[in-house]
Design a protein that fits this description.
four-stranded antiparallel β-sheet, 8 strands, about 15% strand
């Protein structure tokens, strides 16, 4: 019994390590925006890994070979999708217009196998409760719904009112969970001495007591202390 438990534990660790490495090789798209094929491959790879972990008759070489083959096939098709427009259209499909000028295009809904309740739910999740307020709604190849509201229903922006605004870029995290991120400090031409001085000015004696500290595009440091 102990031997079986140890074998399963060792196989599980090997499967997890293999999955981690292969997931990194396949890239962030696997997590961020799955196509239909990516979804199928992900399920298949997970199934193979779980079978290898618990079925003693599957040898390490066999399990790894199956995982690598599925991964390589996914990478090849991803390369084709990147390099070829026709290949991308075949593999990923094309976006479909499901609402046009406030009118639902039922024929496109049927082609996409989306029912009216799912469409209305997607619209509500984007804070649109009246179909008549939509200029276009496009069902993307990822399955997400992109909505262009009609002009009169779009949020008012400073540009619409001709109000000048200051530039706002990305904030730079310089302390996370008490750890100073030195490469981020270097990227904004700051050093630890500057950071320590800023912290003392905020009555914080040690970076270890900081949950998050970041520098905005104006150069100001914002500090969130632990335990607050």
């Amino acid at each position: 019994m102990v031997d079986k438990i140890l074998h399963t534990a060792a196989s599980s660790v090997m499967a997890i390590i293999a999955l981690f490495i292969l997931a990194r090789i396949m890239g962030k798209k696997q997590m961020a925006q799955l196509s239909f094929f990516d979804y199928v491959v992900g399920i298949s790879i997970g199934s193979i890994a779980s079978e290898y972990a618990v079925v003693r008759t599957i040898h390490l070489a066999e399990g790894l070979t199956a995982l690598v083959v599925f991964t390589l096939f996914s990478l090849v098709l991803s390369y084709i999708s990147i390099k070829s427009y026709k290949g991308r259209k075949i593999l990923d499909g094309s976006p479909s217009i499901v609402i046009e000028k406030g009118k639902i295009l039922e024929s496109n809904l049927i082609k996409a196998k989306i029912n009216i309740n799912d469409l209305l739910e997607e619209c509500r999740q984007k804070d649109i409760f009246d179909i008549a307020n939509i200029e276009y709604a496009i069902l993307e190849t990822s399955g997400r719904l992109s909505i262009l509201p009609k002009n009169q229903n779009r949020p008012l922006t400073p540009k619409d009112m001709q109000i000048p605004t200051m530039y706002e870029g990305l904030c730079t995290n310089v302390i996370i969970d008490g750890n100073i991120i030195n490469e981020h400090l270097t990227a904004i031409n700051k050093d630890t001495a500057w950071l320590q001085a800023q912290l003392h000015g905020s009555d914080i004696t040690s970076p270890q007591s900081v949950l998050l500290a970041y520098v905005d595009t104006a150069g100001d440091l914002h500090v969130h202390a632990k335990g607050t």
